[in-house]
Amino acid sequence: GIDENKDSQEGRGIQFWKRKKGEIVSDTTTASDGDKTVSIDSNDLGGVILSAEEPTMTRQLNALSNIVKRALLFGGDEELIVLSETLDANKPAFITRWYPNTKNGNDDDDETETRPGVQYLDALIMLLRQCYDEGVVTTLDPFVTLSQSYSNSYERLMASLVELGSGYVRVSSGSVMAMPKPRTATEE
């Protein structure tokens, strides 16, 4: 029944949800909430959103894109900045998992990033930050250079945000041609 299903899914999901209430992780950073003191180790931040269950980088980035999409559709400014900072904090763990033993020359420079998956992650982070800083983004183009396949994914994300009515992403008035062209019969 329900209990069996719960046990089989226990290994899945986001790890911090499993932590017992009031459990102290380490003493690196502490925050007091009433009578409880909760400590957070910097290693905890590397796995907040990344899932060890995703078998491919494409599925991992798709999951992150869906989180960004929901934040831009249903979240507010605070959610955008928290999500962008969380994704940025997860970036080293993402690189370690999907691009082990690689270096980008200057990992702090998004302009010279050459690893396609990291470029797409940077594009998601920059989109969230632009929406937070500007309030509304009117360009559908990514803020970093993307490979063709990731550019198509970013384009679909932006078109979906416009179509579903995100208050943060809008096509400039009179610019119907700015919308991406449908690629399949169901998109028409």
Describe the structure.
- With 188 residues, this protein is mainly alpha-helical.
- It contains 5 helices and 2 strands.
- The chain has a two-stranded antiparallel ribbon with strand order 1-2.
- α2 packs antiparallel against α3, α2 (57-74) packs parallel to α4 (116-134) and α3 runs antiparallel to α4 (116-134).
- The protein is globular, with a radius of gyration of 19 Å.
- The termini are far apart.
- Structural category is mainly alpha
Strand content: 5-15%
Q: Total number of helical segments?
A: 5
Mean pLDDT: 75
Helix content: 40-55%
For the biggest sheet, the summary is: 2 strands, antiparallel
Task: Annotate the secondary structure layout.
Elements lengths: L1 H8 L19 E5 L2 E5 L16 H18 L2 H22 L17 H19 L13 H16 L25
Antiparallel strand pairs: 1-2
Helix pairs in contact: 2-3, 2-4, 3-4
Please sum up the structure shown.
With 188 residues, the chain is mainly α. It is built from 5 helices and 2 strands, in the order αββαααα. A two-stranded antiparallel ribbon has the order 1-2.
What labels describe this entry?
188 residues; mainly alpha; two-stranded antiparallel ribbon; 2 strands; 44% helix; disordered N terminus
